[in-house]
Amino acid sequence: MLLIKDIKKLAGIILKPHSFKKGEALDVLDSIDHAYLTVEDGKISGYGPMSECPTQADEVISAKGQMVLPSWCDSHTHIVYAASREAEFVARVKGKSYEEIANEGGGILNSARRLQATSFDDLYLDASKRLEEVISYGTGAIEIKSGYGLTVDSEIKMLRVIQKLKENYPITIKSTFLGAHAIPQEYKENRQGYIDLIINEMLPIVAKENLADYCDVFCDKGFYTVEETDQILKAAAKYGLKAKIHANELGITGGVQIGIANNALSVDHLECIDTEEIEALLNSNTTPTLLPSTSFFLNIPYGPARRMIDAGLGITIATDYNPGSTPSGNVPFLLSLACLKLKMTPQEAINAITINGAYAMELENTHGSITVGKEANIIFTDPISSIDFIPYAFGSNVIDKVMLKGKIYPS
Ligand code: NIG
Ligand code: FE
Are residues 255 and 334 in the same domain? Predict the structure, then answer.
């Protein structure tokens, strides 16, 4: 048994398995001061106040002055990509919009051209570096999407990269097929032709090789329509792939409703949202996911988190790490944005990226909280004065070390 002792504060405790935290409950982050935690077979086997600390252990780690939390569960990323896009960043700084750049063949189509010309090995190497980087920020479970391939071969290549990451790293990974991320240039006049390719050629291979857990569609202004999204999600459901979709980043086009109608696990972005959609979400099991780093980087409005939480919704936050709209997987910085820009409390923000992030990847029974029996995926902070210090000290790295499946990573 491994014993972690003298923890200044053990936070993110949940007694019983939980689905996701909503409304007022989102602000409750249970903790114990001066605590211990034990780990057996890679799982949390016990915890409590130091006054009840076991006296015998095979290995002891001192966490004096440190806070211990469940690892972040980042439920929306695109970390497999071929090249950075800082030229587009500079074009935006000089006044071009994200949509203008996309309409000129930049954006996702730019990334697709680069990815199609990049080997599996190079893609794997670059994605590994990004994965190791986000683990160092405290991420212990992550969802990764395809969507920069946009051809049968390249979409499958991306998903195989994700599969190899799953095999080689101790972090928990969920994989999402996002063939419907953009319409390739050669299908601009034949949209249905590309959708048929997704449905008749890509999805059968994805399913046969078990390459994805979920199916995503970029349902938004200038991208996929509600009808097209519905068609793709229904085809994916036939193969057992649940929906997790991009909606309402660039406009209100009905993506939230079509996500809910297809039992989506989450609808993500929601920089634009109205009362009707908040109502629809309240009557569903779909978790709304906000991506404040995207709003920060694209200079677009932030999702109205306060209005949504006060209406009783459960919010998930995620990084959206990708080369175009969010070249960062830094969750501590995401927490600062959630507090400052979404007006969430540090406790709400931490729940939104732990237990709620776990729910958005169907991992709520194994990840996202300090609960006996869950994976020992945990974060040790530097010696800090309070949990609130994490979002307060924006840009600082307050993570001392991380544990994945009961082992300090890297060992
Ligand atoms: O989630 N919005 C759609 N897809 C990604 C960005 C894609 C890109 O610009 O490369 C996102 O923001
Ligand atoms: Fe995204």
Answer: yes
